[in-house]
Prior knowledge:
By secondary structure, the chain is of the alpha/beta class. About 45% of the residues lie in helices and about 20% in strands.
Amino acid sequence: MVIPTLDEEEQVVDAIRSASAPGVEVLVVDGGSRDATRLRAKAAGARVLESPPGRARQLDVGARSAKGGVIVFLHADTRLPPGFADAIRAALRDPATVGGAFRFRFDQHTVALRIVEWGSRLRVAALGLPYGDQALFVRRSVLEAIGGIPMAPIMEDLDLVKAMRQRGRLARLGAPATTSARRHRAHGVFRTAFLHSLAVLAWGLGIDRRRIARWLGR
Protein backbone atom coordinates (compact mmCIF):
# COMPACT_ATOMS: atom_id res chain seq x y z
CA MET A 1 0.00 0.00 0.00
CA VAL A 2 1.54 3.30 -1.11
CA ILE A 3 0.07 6.62 0.08
CA PRO A 4 1.66 9.80 -1.36
CA THR A 5 1.29 12.85 0.87
CA LEU A 6 1.93 16.57 0.95
CA ASP A 7 0.59 18.53 3.93
CA GLU A 8 -2.07 15.93 4.73
CA GLU A 9 -1.96 15.88 8.53
CA GLU A 10 -5.77 16.03 8.72
CA GLN A 11 -6.29 13.12 6.32
CA VAL A 12 -3.41 10.70 6.53
CA VAL A 13 -4.31 8.85 9.73
CA ASP A 14 -7.76 7.83 8.48
CA ALA A 15 -6.24 6.74 5.17
CA ILE A 16 -3.75 4.54 7.00
CA ARG A 17 -6.45 3.07 9.21
CA SER A 18 -8.59 2.19 6.20
CA ALA A 19 -5.57 0.49 4.60
CA SER A 20 -4.64 -1.55 7.66
CA ALA A 21 -5.30 -5.26 7.24
CA PRO A 22 -3.43 -8.50 8.01
CA GLY A 23 -0.46 -8.90 5.70
CA VAL A 24 -0.74 -5.38 4.27
CA GLU A 25 2.33 -3.16 4.41
CA VAL A 26 1.47 0.56 4.50
CA LEU A 27 4.02 3.03 3.15
CA VAL A 28 3.52 6.79 3.27
CA VAL A 29 5.75 8.65 0.81
CA ASP A 30 5.93 12.30 1.77
CA GLY A 31 6.85 14.98 -0.72
CA GLY A 32 8.06 17.64 1.73
CA SER A 33 5.15 18.35 4.06
CA ARG A 34 5.48 21.39 6.29
CA ASP A 35 2.90 20.16 8.77
CA ALA A 36 2.73 17.07 11.02
CA THR A 37 1.95 14.58 8.24
CA ARG A 38 5.07 12.46 8.73
CA LEU A 39 4.75 12.36 12.52
CA ARG A 40 1.10 11.38 12.41
CA ALA A 41 1.74 8.74 9.76
CA LYS A 42 4.47 7.14 11.85
CA ALA A 43 2.29 7.23 14.96
CA ALA A 44 -0.48 5.50 12.99
CA GLY A 45 1.86 2.63 12.17
CA ALA A 46 2.92 3.42 8.61
CA ARG A 47 6.44 3.20 7.31
CA VAL A 48 7.32 6.75 6.21
CA LEU A 49 9.58 7.52 3.26
CA GLU A 50 10.60 10.86 1.80
CA SER A 51 10.73 11.86 -1.83
CA PRO A 52 11.03 14.94 -4.03
CA PRO A 53 7.57 16.46 -4.53
CA GLY A 54 5.41 15.21 -7.37
CA ARG A 55 2.91 12.38 -7.15
CA ALA A 56 4.56 10.29 -9.88
CA ARG A 57 7.94 10.45 -8.10
CA GLN A 58 6.34 9.62 -4.77
CA LEU A 59 4.43 6.65 -6.16
CA ASP A 60 7.61 5.40 -7.80
CA VAL A 61 9.59 5.61 -4.56
CA GLY A 62 6.83 3.74 -2.74
CA ALA A 63 6.45 1.06 -5.39
CA ARG A 64 10.17 0.37 -5.45
CA SER A 65 10.26 0.13 -1.65
CA ALA A 66 7.15 -2.02 -1.21
CA LYS A 67 7.68 -5.73 -0.60
CA GLY A 68 4.41 -7.27 -1.71
CA GLY A 69 3.47 -8.87 -4.99
CA VAL A 70 0.51 -6.51 -5.37
CA ILE A 71 0.73 -2.74 -4.92
CA VAL A 72 -2.21 -0.48 -4.09
CA PHE A 73 -1.93 3.27 -4.65
CA LEU A 74 -4.14 5.20 -2.24
CA HIS A 75 -4.68 8.96 -2.11
CA ALA A 76 -4.41 10.46 1.36
CA ASP A 77 -8.00 11.71 1.23
CA THR A 78 -9.44 8.37 0.06
CA ARG A 79 -10.67 5.57 2.30
CA LEU A 80 -10.69 1.91 1.37
CA PRO A 81 -13.77 -0.21 2.09
CA PRO A 82 -13.78 -2.98 4.71
CA GLY A 83 -12.56 -6.22 3.19
CA PHE A 84 -10.61 -4.47 0.45
CA ALA A 85 -7.69 -6.91 0.65
CA ASP A 86 -9.91 -9.96 0.14
CA ALA A 87 -11.66 -8.22 -2.76
CA ILE A 88 -8.32 -7.57 -4.46
CA ARG A 89 -7.14 -11.13 -3.90
CA ALA A 90 -10.38 -12.49 -5.37
CA ALA A 91 -10.05 -10.28 -8.47
CA LEU A 92 -6.46 -11.37 -9.04
CA ARG A 93 -7.29 -15.08 -8.96
CA ASP A 94 -7.92 -14.59 -12.65
CA PRO A 95 -4.41 -14.69 -14.18
CA ALA A 96 -5.58 -12.43 -17.02
CA THR A 97 -6.31 -9.64 -14.54
CA VAL A 98 -3.31 -7.33 -14.13
CA GLY A 99 -4.88 -4.95 -11.64
CA GLY A 100 -7.91 -2.78 -11.19
CA ALA A 101 -9.70 -0.16 -9.15
CA PHE A 102 -12.61 0.33 -6.78
CA ARG A 103 -15.86 2.14 -7.47
CA PHE A 104 -15.71 5.90 -6.92
CA ARG A 105 -17.75 7.53 -4.16
CA PHE A 106 -17.66 10.87 -2.34
CA ASP A 107 -17.79 11.20 1.43
CA GLN A 108 -20.66 13.67 1.12
CA HIS A 109 -24.02 13.22 -0.55
CA THR A 110 -25.59 16.00 -2.61
CA VAL A 111 -27.36 15.88 -5.94
CA ALA A 112 -24.39 17.54 -7.66
CA LEU A 113 -21.89 15.11 -6.17
CA ARG A 114 -24.09 12.13 -7.07
CA ILE A 115 -24.12 13.31 -10.69
CA VAL A 116 -20.30 13.42 -10.66
CA GLU A 117 -20.23 9.91 -9.20
CA TRP A 118 -22.51 8.74 -12.00
CA GLY A 119 -20.21 10.40 -14.54
CA SER A 120 -17.26 8.54 -13.04
CA ARG A 121 -19.02 5.19 -13.41
CA LEU A 122 -19.88 6.07 -17.01
CA ARG A 123 -16.26 6.99 -17.77
CA VAL A 124 -14.96 3.72 -16.36
CA ALA A 125 -17.60 1.64 -18.14
CA ALA A 126 -17.23 3.39 -21.51
CA LEU A 127 -13.53 4.22 -21.58
CA GLY A 128 -11.98 1.88 -19.01
CA LEU A 129 -10.23 4.81 -17.32
CA PRO A 130 -10.45 4.79 -13.52
CA TYR A 131 -8.71 7.67 -11.76
CA GLY A 132 -6.10 7.44 -9.03
CA ASP A 133 -8.66 8.35 -6.37
CA GLN A 134 -10.29 4.96 -7.00
CA ALA A 135 -7.38 3.18 -5.30
CA LEU A 136 -5.62 1.63 -8.28
CA PHE A 137 -3.92 -1.72 -7.67
CA VAL A 138 -1.49 -3.61 -9.88
CA ARG A 139 0.59 -6.77 -9.81
CA ARG A 140 4.23 -5.97 -9.10
CA SER A 141 5.31 -8.10 -12.07
CA VAL A 142 3.14 -6.01 -14.39
CA LEU A 143 4.37 -2.72 -12.95
CA GLU A 144 7.96 -3.82 -13.47
CA ALA A 145 7.19 -4.99 -17.01
CA ILE A 146 5.86 -1.55 -17.99
CA GLY A 147 8.88 0.19 -16.49
CA GLY A 148 7.38 1.41 -13.22
CA ILE A 149 5.27 4.49 -12.60
CA PRO A 150 5.11 6.73 -15.69
CA MET A 151 6.93 9.97 -14.93
CA ALA A 152 4.60 12.87 -15.72
CA PRO A 153 3.84 16.16 -13.93
CA ILE A 154 0.13 15.31 -13.89
CA MET A 155 -2.25 12.48 -14.86
CA GLU A 156 0.29 9.75 -14.23
CA ASP A 157 -2.65 7.64 -13.05
CA LEU A 158 -4.14 7.55 -16.54
CA ASP A 159 -0.75 6.74 -18.03
CA LEU A 160 -0.48 3.84 -15.61
CA VAL A 161 -3.98 2.59 -16.41
CA LYS A 162 -3.27 2.78 -20.14
CA ALA A 163 -0.06 0.79 -19.74
CA MET A 164 -1.80 -1.79 -17.55
CA ARG A 165 -4.57 -2.31 -20.09
CA GLN A 166 -1.96 -3.18 -22.70
CA ARG A 167 -0.88 -6.09 -20.45
CA GLY A 168 -4.24 -7.56 -19.55
CA ARG A 169 -7.61 -7.05 -17.93
CA LEU A 170 -8.54 -4.41 -15.34
CA ALA A 171 -10.97 -5.47 -12.61
CA ARG A 172 -13.71 -3.02 -11.67
CA LEU A 173 -14.56 -3.77 -8.04
CA GLY A 174 -18.05 -2.99 -6.82
CA ALA A 175 -17.04 -1.87 -3.34
CA PRO A 176 -16.44 1.90 -3.13
CA ALA A 177 -13.27 3.80 -2.37
CA THR A 178 -14.61 6.88 -0.61
CA THR A 179 -12.91 10.17 -1.48
CA SER A 180 -13.18 13.57 0.16
CA ALA A 181 -15.31 16.08 -1.74
CA ARG A 182 -13.20 18.94 -0.37
CA ARG A 183 -11.70 20.05 -3.69
CA HIS A 184 -14.98 19.84 -5.57
CA ARG A 185 -16.76 21.82 -2.86
CA ALA A 186 -13.98 24.41 -2.67
CA HIS A 187 -13.82 25.14 -6.40
CA GLY A 188 -17.38 24.31 -7.47
CA VAL A 189 -18.62 20.78 -8.12
CA PHE A 190 -19.56 21.13 -11.78
CA ARG A 191 -16.68 23.46 -12.60
CA THR A 192 -14.20 20.97 -11.15
CA ALA A 193 -15.85 18.05 -12.95
CA PHE A 194 -15.78 19.98 -16.23
CA LEU A 195 -12.09 20.81 -15.87
CA HIS A 196 -11.28 17.18 -15.09
CA SER A 197 -13.21 16.03 -18.17
CA LEU A 198 -11.39 18.62 -20.28
CA ALA A 199 -8.09 17.38 -18.88
CA VAL A 200 -8.91 13.77 -19.83
CA LEU A 201 -9.74 14.89 -23.36
CA ALA A 202 -6.48 16.85 -23.54
CA TRP A 203 -4.58 13.82 -22.21
CA GLY A 204 -6.14 11.67 -24.91
CA LEU A 205 -5.09 14.20 -27.55
CA GLY A 206 -1.51 14.25 -26.28
CA ILE A 207 -1.50 17.90 -25.17
CA ASP A 208 1.52 18.91 -23.08
CA ARG A 209 0.99 17.98 -19.43
CA ARG A 210 2.38 21.24 -18.12
CA ARG A 211 -0.31 23.05 -20.03
CA ILE A 212 -2.98 20.76 -18.60
CA ALA A 213 -1.60 21.37 -15.10
CA ARG A 214 -1.96 25.12 -15.60
CA TRP A 215 -5.60 24.64 -16.62
CA LEU A 216 -6.19 22.76 -13.38
CA GLY A 217 -4.31 25.32 -11.30
CA ARG A 218 -1.53 22.94 -10.25
